[in-house]
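Why do we bother with a discrete structure alphabet at all? Because it lets us treat a fold like text: something you can write down, compare, and reason about line by line. To make this less abstract, here is a complete entry for Ubiquitin-like protease family profile domain-containing protein. Read it the way you would read a sentence in a foreign language you are learning: slowly, and without expecting to understand everything at once.
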Amino acid sequence: MVQPLIERPNHIQPAETEEQTLTVDDENHVDFNVMSPPRPRGRPRQKPKAKKAKRNISIRMATEDSEMFEKQLNLSTIAGTLDVDADYSTMQILRCFKLYHFEKRQKPPTAYELCNIPPGKLLLAPKMLFRVLPIEILSRCQAKVTALQKKRKGLSKVNTAVEIHGVGVFAATTLSLMRNWHKAMESLRLVDKTEKGALDGVSREKILIPLYFNGNHWCAIMIDMTTRSIKYYDPMQSSYSKDVRALAERLAGLRPTTATERARVQPYPTDMGVQVGSYNCGIYMLLAFEMFANPDAPKLPPLSRKMLAYLRYRYLVLCI
């Protein structure tokens, strides 16, 4: 069946429309609201840069924890370190510990009685921990424990525990150990600041330390910062040498050295011989200072009484 062809005009005239106007005045008021687009729901999408930064932090923390495990360092090590006399080796141990990293503000901690910890929550022992909580979180934990003690009359602090959401449950003794670490680190920061000011500009100099024992004998300790050597000198070679060496060993432990480079404590050798007379120790000490400060100076032979009298007047003139 063939449908007949219907010719259509090339131009179709649009229908004529009348102009319509809307007059808005006080009587003919029109209210309308612009609908805002729907808000996105659910968890906000993270940018790739933020995801990468978060992943790098997780990798760094895992690496640091594995290094602490390899060194056999955990939170129980802090207790043993703080119980002994502080020296540079203990400072190095305390510096190995890092803080927990929190990306956002944590939920308020929850305090429990040690005997009423909810089932399923693990109490973290110090041997299981390789990090320390920040000081502001420890302050919040202390406030929660204080509030719990007000509710439970007679509750001792050692019988409490605090849960850090997302981390675990810590006993009060563990939190106290962390606070002691923060106090020790604050002292170390003051030591570093003082040491930097005291040793500023003397990294390649020589330090001379006179020692006066019991008001009747002079000894000395001499430190060469270029060779990292510590010399101790007793002109009489008496029993005071033991005390001078012990002090020099303590100074060697306090000096900042690397693991493979330790200061050597040795007696200072001279050709002046043993001290002559019981009142010339100061002369020997000053001569040892001069020779240590200027190694290229000619060495003195064993001192006679006449030479000692001359040197005594020489130093007296320098004082005047």
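What the structure line is telling us, in plain words: Strands lie at 98-99, 110-113, 123-124, 131-132, 160-164, 168-171, 206-213, 217-224, 229-233, 264-267. Residues 91 and 159 are 31 Å apart (CA to CA).
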